[in-house]
Structures are given as C-alpha cells and as structure tokens.
Amino acid sequence: MHSISKGLFFCLAVLILFSLPGKVTLPGFLGQQEARADDIMVSTDTTEGLRQITPATATDRTGHFVIVWADERSGRDNFDVYAQLYNLSGIPQGTNFKVNTDTGTTFQNYPSASMDASGNFIVVWEDGRNGNSDIYAQRFNSSGSTIGVNFRVDNDTTEGGQYAPDVVMNYHTGSFVITWRDESVAEEFAVYAQMYKPNGDTIGEVLTVNDQPIGTSQSSPAIAMDDSGNFVITWDDQRGVNYDIFAQYYYYDGTTWGANFLIGDNTDGNKRYPDIAMNGKGYFVIAWDDERNGNQDIYAERYDSLSLTLDPSNFRVDNDEGGASQVWPSVSMNEAGDFVIAWNDGRLLNSDIYAQRYNFCIDSLEPEGTNYFISDPAYAVNWQTEVAVTMTDNKICYTWTDDRNDVDNDIFAKITDWGWSEVSDEEEAVTRPSSFELFQNYPNPFNPTTTIKFKVQGSKFKVPIHTTLNIYNVLGQLVRTLVDEEKVPGEYQVGWDGRDDSGAEAASGVYFYQLKTADQSYTKKMVLMH
User: Fold this and answer.
1) How far apart are CA 350 and CA 358, in angstroms?
2) Strand, helix or coil for residue 190
3) How far apart are CA 465 and CA 416, in angstroms?
4) CA angle (523, 529, 530) in 5-degree steps
5) How far apart are CA 80 and CA 98, in angstroms?
6) DSSP string covering 235-286, please?
7) What is the model's pLDDT at position 46?
8) What's the rounded Cα separation, in Å, for the pair 224 and 279?
9) CA neighbor of 312 nearest in space, from 249, 266, 261
10) 466 SS3 class
11) What total of structural domains would you count in the chain?
C-alpha cells in the first residue's frame, strides 16, 4: 500500500464514514446496528462490597468465547478464579463456574486463558495455596467441564514467588505453553516458560526466556503462537537505563531462533506491560505503554513470520494530545492479519476503555477509523479498567473491570462485529410520522458554520410541543444545545457556528445533531473541518 498525506487520509476517512452504515450506541438516541451483545455483565455475583477484577478472554476463532477473572464472592480478600462461556451472539453458555479447586482462604488471581479449534481451553493463574505465589492451571473441554485437576506449573522449591502468568494453546493440536515472571533465584527477576503436550504432560525442562544476567528485572511476560507451534514471548526488561520491551522467538520444539531482541526503535522513557498477538501464519504485533513523550501512550510494532519488522519505526496507537495516561494494552489478531488494540485511557479524567483497529497490509500501516470508546458512553463518568480483547475473523470480544453498579467492581464485556465503531445516522427502527422531519445540514462538511433545517407539521402537532435540537460528539457528550423550546407546526432552520455551549471552538471531527420531542427523535451526522 502507498502512503498518503494526513489531509488526504482525513478526507478519505470522511468519505468512508459517510458511506458506511453506523454501528455505535450513544446514550439515549442512537440505535445499536451490528454489535452482537452490548455491555454484558459477566460476573453474576452482586453482593455489595465484593469485587470481581483482572479479566482475560480467549476464543476458538469460530463460535465461542471464554472470559475468566478473579472473584471475591467467597469473602473479602478471598479471591478465586471464575469463568463464563459465551457464543458469538453474547449468549452465556451455562453459568459462572469456579476454576480453582482450592477451598481455603488464600488468593487466586491474575488469570489468563487460551482456546483451541475444538473449543477446549486452559486457564492459568497466580495461586497462594502453598504459602507464596505459584502458577497453577486447569484444562477444560468445550462445554466447560474439567479435564484432569488443577496442576502446578512452576517447579520452584524456594520461597520465591511466581507471578503474571500467560498461556497460549496451539489452535490445531491443543499443545500449550505457559510463561510467567519468576523470583526463585535470589536477586533475579526472570521470565520462565514451560511447554506441554495436548494431554498436559510437560515437554522438556522449564525454559529461561531472558538472557540477561542476575541483578536486573524482567516482568510482565506475554506469549503468542502460530499454527505450526512456533511461539514468541515478550516482556519488559530493565537491562538498560529504562525498562524496554524485549522478545524471544521459539521454534515449535522449544529451540530458540536467535537471541533476545529489542522491540521498537526508541529507548527514551520506560516501556512497560507488553501484549502480543499472532496469526496462524506467524505474523505478529506487540503493543505496550510508553513514556517517550513524557506521559504514558500506547505504541506498537508489527513483525512478519521471520521476526522482521513491518514498520521501520514503531507507531503510536492512541490519538490523545492532552497529556493523559494510556496504559495496559491488550491486542488480538485474526487470521487475515487484521488486529485490534484496546487499552485503559485517562483522556476523560478517569479510566475508560478505548480501542483502535488496523487492517492488514504489509507495505504500510492501515488504521480503520480512529480511536473509539468501548463501553456504553452513559457510564463514561465511571471507572472502566483492566481491559482484555480477543477476536475471530470478524468478531471482537472486549472484557473489562467496571464500577458502574457502585458495589465495588464487576466484570463487563462487549461482543461486536469487526466494523463496529462508527455511528448510525439513523436511530433504532421506529415508526416516524410524516409530520416530523430532519434534513441534512448544509454545507457538509463545513467550516466554520452550517445550517440545520427541520419541519413540524400535521395533525399530530396541532398545539405547540417542546422540541430540542442538540449536538453531540462521537462519545455521546453534549456539545451544544441549539433549540430547547415550544414549537408550533412549521418549518425551521438554525445555524451552528462550530462552538460549544461555553463558546469554545469545537475540534475538527464528526458530530451528531438530534431533533427530539417527547415521543420522537431523529439523528444525523455532520463533519466539522477547520
């Protein structure tokens, strides 16, 4: 693909936006068009004061998702790992079920999951049943029934801890690899891994992934695998002045291809908390949070199946220019090489969930649309955090921790089509009387003023009726109220000067104008271009 100028790209994006059917629900007026399941509450325990946190998710690429999390329903500070299966329409398959079999009051937390083509899956987590933190795992079949028992992954006999596990399962064979941060060696914080056969038997000895000597810190490992069983582990590494992102490529038999390699071309500021996704052909993408700009942003880099970068320099994912923090990315890739990155975003003064989609193209980076808000914007004032994402060829499952119910935290999820993120210029299918009409603004796109016409007439409106005409941004936030008064039948027009209710100039972008009465509403979109 050939590169294009920012201006041309924006114009093309505008044309594409206006040619696509809309798909985002904004509070109170825009209909959900293609999202399969919107803001599902995954954790069913609603006991006040008990928390559900640290979710993760996996898919079999065709029909099922599993969501796992840490859950306090057995008592405060007594976290267990729970799970829930879903089909692609977001319909739960069965009920929440407990993963760990330990019945004591020790902690089980920070789970991860992976699933094969048959829907069999494995869950790993941190487990305190032995007095310190170890890594445990449990295998399941596609219906959620256990295969075998909880088993310990690490072989540490010291008092050192094992933390932050991640797991990947071979899509075709069901073999799997588990990686974690290990503190079993004094003054060493290393990344380890263990390979397994499909039946759960170990393959070889525990692998030491990082090649840096004692005295440095390696943490936050993440792992991905292609359909041949080759895999890549990435982590953040303090072998230099700052934390940087490193990775190691492994063949299917556990032998390394080359040495640890540095991800990205910039060593300014800390790089932390990487995540990785890979398709069956071996193309992969790594995302992380990055302090090179003085605050935390999300950056990423793509690689081909030979671990050669597809991007001469790593690219920034978030488009926030306000200095807020963007952290803890999660990434998933489909078989075509399209991928989505989601993260925690502070641009609205608290923590919300944003995402960005990218289409596969070897020659150049191809973002689809722009950053978009994941959860229902009506709850943007609440805290959404700890996002995890997985995807099939054309469906995406997002899951996160959410405090909207004011009873500590719950686990929520959204299952969408790949194209979900744009906004509909039609509301949900309702019957609209011919006596009520909203026209497209003109000019459109515009700078800096535009005119909006609407009509109220006919027998339904023989008396004045209260009418509002409001403008919203893509997050569903009110920007400007143009009309808020009684209107008798007739044709009206009102201008907008591109400013909000405080008089401040609105930014370039897509906006929505909504005409509303007590029982009817109609919404259209427009583009402001400075």
Assistant:
1) 26
2) strand
3) 38
4) 140
5) 7
6) EEE-SSSS-EEEEEEE-TTS-BSSS-EE-SS--SS-EEEEEEEE-TTS-EEE
7) 84
8) 9
9) 266
10) strand
11) 2
Residues comprising the chain, all counted: 530
Identify the residue whose tokens are 């319909």.
91
- Whose structure tokens read 């649309």? 369
Statement to judge: residues 371 and 451 lie in one domain: no
Residue 150, both tokens: 């909880």
Task: Give mean pLDDT in consecutive 10-residue pieces for the chain, a chain of 530 residues.
Answer: 36 36 34 57 90 97 93 93 94 95 90 97 97 96 97 91 97 97 83 97 96 82 98 94 95 96 90 98 97 96 93 91 93 96 91 95 90 87 94 95 86 93 41 63 91 74 77 84 89 93 91 78 82
Going through 88-211 in order, the beta strands assigned E by DSSP cover 92-98, 108-115, 121-127, 134-140, 146-152, 162-169, 176-182, 190-196, 202-208
Q: Is residue 422 assigned to a domain?
A: no
Place of tokens 């941060």: 181
Please state, in angstroms and rounded to a whole number, the distance separating the CA atoms of residues 298 and 337. Answer: 20
- 466 with 330, same domain: the answer is no
pTM of the model: 0.75
Same structural domain for residues 17 and 42? no
144: how many CB neighbours lie within 10 A of its CB? 18
Query: 274: cis peptide before it, omega within 30°?
Result: no
Q: What is the CATH number of the domain that holds 263?
A: 2.120.10.10
Residue 316 tokens, joined: 């920034």
Q: What are the tokens at 15?
A: 């044309």
Spatial separation of the C-alpha atoms in residues 346 and 413, rounded to whole Å: 19
Do 380 and 459 reside in the same domain of the chain? Answer: no
285 and 251, same structural domain? yes
CA–chain centroid gap for 414, Å, is: 10
Kind plus residue range of the DSSP H or E element containing 7 = helix 6-19
Asked if residues 245 and 264 have their Cβ atoms less than 8 Å apart, the reply is yes
Q: How big is the chain by its Cα radius of gyration, in Å?
A: 25
CA 178, 390, 370, 324 torsion: positive or negative? negative
Task: Supply 413's token pair.
Answer: 């999820």
Query: Tell me, what's the pLDDT at 179?
Result: 98
